Amino acid sequence: MKVEFAPLNIPLARRLQTAAVLQWVLSFLLLAQVCLGVIVFLIIYNYWFLYIPYLTWLYFDWQTPEQGGRRSDWVRSWTIWRYFKDYFPIHLIKTWDLNPSHNYIFGFHPHGVLVAGAFGNFCTNYSNFKELFPGLTAYLHVLPFWFRCPLFREYLMSSGPVSVSRRSVCHVLSKEGGGNISVIVLGGAEESLDAHPGKFTLFIRQRKGFVKIALTHGAYLVPVFSFGENELFKQVSNPEGSWLRTVQEKLQKIMGFALPLFHARGIFQYNFGLMPYRKPIHTVVGRPIPVHQTLHPTPEQVEELHQTYMEELRKLFEEHKGKYGIPENETLIFR
């Protein structure tokens, strides 16, 4: 295979975009382990004046990711996130006005490998979220696992993510007078194993917990489809029933998160590496589904609203797929 190297005369802005995405990928893959290593180092070499105050504070701060987190506008406004957004680039598209007097659940699809669109649009101040949805604050819900790692949790929370636990979602949606959005990647880790270019398989049929929470809080449901999310990486072939998929699914059940074997381009060449491809991401926010608060919803009410949500999600995909180069014969597969 002939290696295609990047030209030497690449503009500085594009180099900075590559550097921004590189640090993001490395943070996702390695920063938690590095932070844990720092704590272990401090304990082994008995830097008690550093780790004892931090671990004491951590004990009292443990529930913060389930209580709205601790976002920092300063971190969210780092220039590096502007370069991150421009690398792909990432776009946020509104199709309907949202009334800030309500709370909402954004169902984000698909998961992709690293959920770049969700992070770029809802965890930085460089998307046009505030202009499109004035008076609303978005909270991206991620696996609780990430908040159990000392030090790393502080960095993660600073961008705005909170836990995806039921308690955390209920906290966000309990805001009096509305104005909050819970952004939930509904397909979860399981869906990431099907994040292949050109595939549109969504794990949604058995995901009904978000519907019940929406009913109990009267939160409007909004389908969101991120076109291009599955195009950023390639995965080692892992069809259903293969030995690789079986191992991945078993590991996912044990650890709570999936391990897709992904690859894309490198830093200085375009043939192999862990850098995502420069593919545009268009995150389209659909029409809100009004939800009447029902403190004790029946299974039938949950099922009815769940079906309505899937229908609206499919309509959103069909209405916009042609704009983003998806063939007319392609459609969503609900699993």
TrEMBL record:
InterPro entries named among the record's database cross-references: DAGAT
Enzyme class: transferase
GO MF entry, a single one: 2-acylglycerol O-acyltransferase activity
Keyword entries, A-Z: Acyltransferase, Endoplasmic reticulum, Glycerol metabolism, Glycoprotein, Lipid biosynthesis, Lipid metabolism, Membrane, Transferase, Transmembrane, Transmembrane helix
Pathway(s) served: Glycerolipid metabolism; triacylglycerol biosynthesis; Lipid metabolism
GO biological process: diacylglycerol biosynthetic process; glycerol metabolic process; triglyceride biosynthetic process
Source superkingdom: Eukaryota
Keyword NADP: no
Catalytic activity as recorded in UniProt: a 1-acylglycerol + an acyl-CoA = a 1,2-diacylglycerol + CoA; a 2-acylglycerol + an acyl-CoA = a 2,3-diacyl-sn-glycerol + CoA; a 1-acyl-sn-glycerol + an acyl-CoA = a 1,3-diacyl-sn-glycerol + CoA; a 1-acylglycerol + an acyl-CoA = a 1,3-diacylglycerol + CoA
Keyword Transferase belongs to the record: yes
GO CC, one annotated term: endoplasmic reticulum membrane
This enzyme's EC code(s): 2.3.1.-
Membrane-traversing stretches: 21-48
Compartments (UniProt record): Endoplasmic reticulum membrane
Membrane topology type: Multi-pass membrane protein
PANTHER family: 2-ACYLGLYCEROL O-ACYLTRANSFERASE 1, DIACYLGLYCEROL O-ACYLTRANSFERASE
Family of this protein: Belongs to the diacylglycerol acyltransferase family.
Name of the protein this chain belongs to: Acyltransferase
